[in-house]
Amino acid sequence: MNGRQRLPGQRPLLRTLLVAAGWTVVALGGTFALDPFRNYQLALVAAYLCATAGLTVLVGATGQLSLGHAALMAVGGYGFALTTNALPFGGIPAFVLALLVGALASAVVGLLLGLAAARLSGPYLAGLTLAVVVALPAVASTWSTALHGDQGVQIPFEGVPDALRRVVALEQWQAMVAVVVTAAVVTGLTVLRGGRFGLRMLAVRDDEVAARLSGIPAGRVKVLAFTASSVAAGVGGGVLCFVAQAVSPGAYTVGFSLLLVVAVVIGGLGSILGAALGSVVIVLLPWLIGRLTSSLPADAAQRLDGNLAVLVFGLLLITVMAVAPHGLHGALVARRRRTSRRPTGDGPRPTEEPAPRKVLVPTEEQR
Amino acid sequence: MSAQMTPVRTGGEPRSPRLSIHGLSVRFGGLSALDDVSLEVREGEVVGLIGPNGAGKTTLFNAVCGLVRPSAGTITVDGVPLPPDPTRLSARGVARTLQGLGLFRGLTVRENVLAGRLGAHDPGTDAQRQLDALDLAGHADRPVGDLPYPEQKKVALARALVAQPSLLLLDEPAGGLGSEDIAALGDLIRRTAATGCAVLLVEHHVDFVMSVCDRVVVLDFGRVIASGTPDEVAGDPAVDEAYLGIEVSR
């Protein structure tokens, strides 16, 4: 046999890159069809997708539940903001460098958390990661000279590059940058999840002892997965800082961290497309609810503001879990399977004869 | 109807020991799970490890695999001590099946087998070869949980065998199988041993052990109480006493 046999779920790298490039071009083209506010929402979806894609790979593929991904986004955001302010130059080189520093900072924090995560599981890991988010405002206050406490860090306004200023509005430019960065993150996670490392993660999730006996270093796999997921979240935080031109602990609350988990559960655990659907939901749903409540009397609208969204998210989560336990993406896949299995002809269905029972291992005679 | 199996007895030149355990003791707090256990499994030999529940059989496997830390004794494979790290066992040619299948429930049959060979240059080809050898190719892309229990047992065996081990540890491989499947399993074990692989198996199915093993070691309360050929062990009054709980006059 010539060459190595491809592993299940592993696509050729070139094909993955071409598919990613194709979707990126479609998304970039789409920004021309959107108004500035929709482009702003697209940039938010892209930033959240970095975090939710990393989270869904972590939770879905390794079974490690992190409730602290908002904190990892914040680390990336602060890294991005502090680097941007420290650099003597601006433009795309400064953006790329600041994003790399933000990703590196979240990688370091993620590595430390991952080392602990390799020894913890279930509610213990969830508790640890939740504590990190809870501690975030205190960290920002303690090092207020650098992190500016609750006010956060602002970055200088960077408009559209001169070459594009005539054809691209600010929000569209931000959306385009967010789309390109997110495409790179999602492609990286897709490659990571496919092939050998992806199988190692799934094996560790399903049975850690059996995985170790099969030669899979379970601890190292968990640490690497947590670190990769943290980098994705950190890049998302950097993109969010680029879009909002500021980073502050108020943007990365426990509620937001839980919302990221809700997004990946609603979208479908382990599915990057599901993470994208979930990110769209967490951006659009509060906006839709805001539109609805704005038509109510001012007193009622004020009382419902913020609270109604939480209630609706809770109801949505319960409904999705009851109707589609594998999330929106799982429901789409199941529907596609049902459609493809449906008989197309009017003739009678072929009778299914039970296959002869096979013994455990065929003997030489049975072969 | 009981399965018809022909005992295989080894003969000829003595073969070199693949697994050597000397003076192995494992303690859990005040409880002695294994006490000064010594045994050897030679190249191409099938050794059965039997004993009542709680005798220490699985603990011995866990000690060999580095899942529990021995308090005393040495474990060597081909004369070299085994690393106390389960993930390095497959690199040393050691494979093990687990009592409770230990399959990766979210994966397909093929992926389960692949998982046992991920460190290889071309795991896909190796896995396909193993799937063909155990007649699993037809189920390769089905979720492993969809298969009947005997087929799942076969997948667990395939995952252990795909690494082409020189020492195979089987933890209750016949558990839950019917007579026909047990006979086929015995055939597979004998064929695996014929390639030079040393096989150590823990099993409660005494008839199966007696028919497939070259030697049998009996554990009770963490100590070796009998060792020898199946015929020798079957006639040992200490074994009857351990299994039946009756005192036999010596």
TrEMBL record, chain A:
CDD domains hit by this protein: TM_PBP1_LivM_like
Region annotation Disordered: where it falls in the sequence: 334-367
The transmembrane segments are 12-34, 40-59, 71-89, 95-117, 124-143, 173-192, 258-289, 309-334
Entry keywords, A to Z? Cell membrane, Membrane, Transmembrane, Transmembrane helix
Give membrane topology per the record: Multi-pass membrane protein
Record's protein name = Branched-chain amino acid transport system permease protein
What Pfam families does the record tag this protein with?
BPD_transp_2
Please give the InterPro entries that the UniProt record associates with this protein: ABC_transp_permease, LivM-like
Say which domain of life the source belongs to. Bacteria
Q: Where in the cell is it found?
A: Cell membrane
TrEMBL record, chain B:
Residue ranges of every copy of the ABC transporter domain listed in the record: 19-246
Keyword Nucleotide-binding present in the record's keywords: the answer is yes
Signal peptide (UniProt feature, chain positions): none
The alphabetized UniProt keywords are: ATP-binding, Nucleotide-binding, Transport
Give the molecular function GO annotations. Answer: ATP binding
- Report whether Transcription shows up as a keyword of the record: no
SUPFAM superfamilies given in the database record: P-loop containing nucleoside triphosphate hydrolases
The name under which this protein is listed is Branched-chain amino acid transport system ATP-binding protein
Q: Which organism is it from?
A: Cellulomonas humilata
